[in-house]
Specification:
Length: 324
């Protein structure tokens, strides 16, 4: 897990830990917004209008943060408007690579570059920071729009509606105040919580992260006993943000990240709920378990030093979920 320092790639591990052994995720650097008319968004500068063919999305099928951007691209019918390049699942000494020797990895479809860092350097030659996915690129201005997945899914949710006619809204105004604390708890203790457990370098840091993770899973299990989705009868961004972690839980996080108090499939409501979301039209096509299992176990030699890929349980994600 290298990083750029003043535009130079270094294979030293990025500093993502605190003095007490707890994993800390750094903030993203690029935070512009695509809007329907190019007006400025909540952060960054304006000038990024929603136009067909103007933007390109760089992703990894293995990464949960990138996966949720793919979910929203599919949910909002943006496949013909926004192109995609998929990195190889292995993230080794050179970081994310555009190799094509793994099914589903596409290479860089825009510039033909060998590494994702080269795309970042095209926009910021003196950049210091981590090279992450998703990355949303503006082909017209030849620059990065955003590398913050939470922002990207909200852009996809509404900015292109006038072009696609797809008015499905996963961040409805009347639920935003209620969604915010749910998102916050899920991000802190589940989305990022599994990493805080898996990358902890002290017992106390691991114990705190694992305890908070399963307290929230218990809370979600009870919440989903009362409603089909987190906010009631309709799916919102809160559900898709959670799903990107749940779909990886049993194949990766349970064992690889020591989140092993229970399997996801031992939670009746959460397991059925995850299958419900997986079975939405087009979503299964964006979930590549081969990329997920390969990336975590082969790339993260600090957790799995011998890079042994487990056989994993066989789960039937197409089993009827019964949450009609």
């Amino acid at each position: 897990m290298g990083q750029l320092t003043d535009g130079v790639w270094t294979t030293a591990r990025a500093d993502t830990g605190s003095t007490d052994g707890a994993f800390e995720r750094p903030d993203q650097q690029f935070r512009h917004w695509i809007t329907s008319d190019g007006a400025p968004g909540p952060t960054g500068e304006g000038g990024f209008a929603a136009e067909p063919g103007r933007y390109h999305l760089y992703v990894s099928y293995a990464c949960p943060w990138a996966n949720r951007a793919l979910f929203f691209r599919r949910l909002k019918g943006l496949e013909d408007l926004i192109g995609v390049s998929v990195v190889h699942p292995d993230m080794l000494a050179e970081g994310w690579e555009f190799r094509t020797d793994f099914d589903g990895a596409t290479g860089d479809r825009v510039f033909g570059l060998p590494y994702l860092r080269d795309v970042y350097l095209r926009a910021a030659p003196e950049m210091t920071g981590r090279v992450t996915v998703p990355l949303l690129w503006d082909l017209q201005r030849d620059c990065i729009v955003s590398n913050e997945s939470a922002d990207i899914i909200r852009m996809f949710n509404g900015a292109f509606d006038g072009l696609t006619g797809n008015a499905d809204d996963y961040w409805p105004e009347n639920l935003r105040v209620a969604i915010a604390p749910v998102n916050e708890r899920i991000y802190d203790t589940v989305n990022n919580g599994v990493y805080r457990a898996g990358f902890a370098t002290s017992q106390s840091a691991y114990d705190a992260a694992a305890r908070a993770l399963f307290e929230t899973l218990d809370w979600l299990e009870a919440r989903l006993d009362r409603s089909r989705y987190l906010m009631g009868a309709r799916a919102t961004e809160a559900d898709w943000r959670l799903f990107s972690t749940l779909v990886r839980f049993d194949p990766v996080y349970h064992t690889h990240f020591k989140c092993n108090r229970a399997w996801l499939r031992e939670y009746p409501n959460l397991w059925a709920y995850a299958r419900d979301l997986y079975q939405w039209p087009g979503i299964a096509d964006e979930v590549r378990f081969d990329h997920i299992v390969r990336h975590y176990h082969y790339s993260q030699d600090n957790v799995n030093p011998h890079r042994i890929i487990p056989i994993n349980p066989v789960l039937d994600w197409s089993e009827p979920h019964g949450r009609g």
